[in-house]
Design goal:
Largest sheet: none
Helix content: over 70%
Strand content: under 5%
Shape: elongated
Structural class: mainly alpha
Radius of gyration: 24 Å
Number of strands: 0
Distance between the termini: 58 Å
């Protein structure tokens, strides 16, 4: 059983976390390059939020939005 957990440790520490170790060492040289993954995720989230808001506006302009306060039983 000990070998099983040591195998899991080896998988995560030596194989799967290697790119993150590289980014951690890269941070000492260039903060912006080390955080490119974060910048990419922020751009994707911002684009998704803009798309979502535009879709909400489109449905509201078409009159498909139900804004009746009795739409849910807990709002009565």
């Amino acid at each position: 059983m000990k070998a099983f957990f040591e195998g899991i440790q080896y998988l995560f520490v030596n194989i799967l976390f290697t790119p993150l170790d590289f980014l951690r060492s890269l941070e000492l040289k260039s903060w912006f390059v080390a955080n490119t993954i974060n910048w990419i995720f922020m751009i994707i989230c911002a684009a998704a939020m803009v798309y979502w808001i535009l879709q909400l506006k489109l449905h509201q302009d078409n009159g498909e939005e139900n804004q009746d306060t009795t739409a849910h039983s807990f709002l009565k």
